[in-house]
Amino acid sequence: MAILSSFAPLTILSLVLLVVGIIVSGVEARPRAFFVFGDSLVDNGNNNYLATTARADAPPYGIDYPPTHRPTGRFSNGYNIPDLISQRLGAESTLPYLSPELRGDKLLVGANFASAGIGILNDTGVQFVNVIRMYRQLEYFKEYQNRVSAIIGASEAKNLVKQALVLITVGGNDFVNNYFLVPNSARSQQYPLPAYVKYLISEYQKLLQRLYDLGARRVLVTGTGPLGCVPSELAQRGRNGQCAPELQQAAALFNPQLEQMLLQLNRKIATDVFIAANTGKAHNDFVTNPQQFGFVTSQVACCGQGPYNGIGLCTALSNLCSNRDQYAFWDAFHPSEKANRLIVEEIMSGSKAYMNPMNLSTILALDSNT
Questions:
Q1: Is the peptide bond before 60 cis (omega within 30 degrees of 0)?
Q2: How far apart, in Å, do the first and last CA atoms of the chain sit?
Q3: Is 318 a catalytic residue?
Q4: Domain 29-280+352-368 is in which class?
Q5: Residue 331 is a catalytic residue
Q6: Active-site position among 39, 40, 86, 336
């Protein structure tokens, strides 16, 4: 007994240190914050809180979203790209910035500022009226930092943002809901397509510079998908099931110039802040060869009406497929959850053709050692 009792203080001390270690490890293990900017491809529900027609808050949106199987404001049958990246980070999904639930510890997870219908340019998506345009998303990001500073202090808030991962997805609407929205649109009268693309890239660079000035240091920047191949454009502009050539040309001009601009920004900053995510290439893989990825079709949307289910909105009265995993497109514009998973696979582990200068797995490995 005497021998055992002499070790009791050490045993107690060991247990205390073990518990403290677990607590400290738990703090250190908190997933990095995640911030999302952009359009409907990454909107987690901000537009639910706005008086706009660009909404996904009615069935059958969210039909596969667990556990409720109800609409959330995501333009998907289930998870979207930010959700799936959050899962890879070991974190819960970021809440929409306009959600009243985004307060307290939830703020430390990050925030989603994206808004369906917006573009790089302020005049993109004017038909949707009340949406959160890019300049406003960045203003909200600054406001967010002030809110977090009030909780954890300015220095810790700055570190939280510096160590965070950022995703930005914008640009497709500048073609679909601006330049090509109507014949002889104001922008198409102002610019031939190559000049318009250069203008978009120059304006996008300003937004990304502002994002950097606000503290972002790891930013995934996605290109546009195969714009002319979405069911909406097949129905309205395609011929005999062929992708609409003018929109395909727009994507072919935009994506390489975006990647070059990001690399130039990195050279200017002298570090790899901006990562070009060639989601257009990933998307095009299963658009051109859907069967290879387990899809029955990459032309017909799961939910919609008219040719290719590409006319109008997805509503409770629309045609609805029974197996969403067999469709590359959920609605007239947006990928299905399965397609989003394939895109995130390339974001995580894709080669330099998909992720330049590095994929997200490499980023996470590098950042864990710093």
A1: yes
A2: 48
A3: no
A4: alpha beta
A5: yes
A6: 40
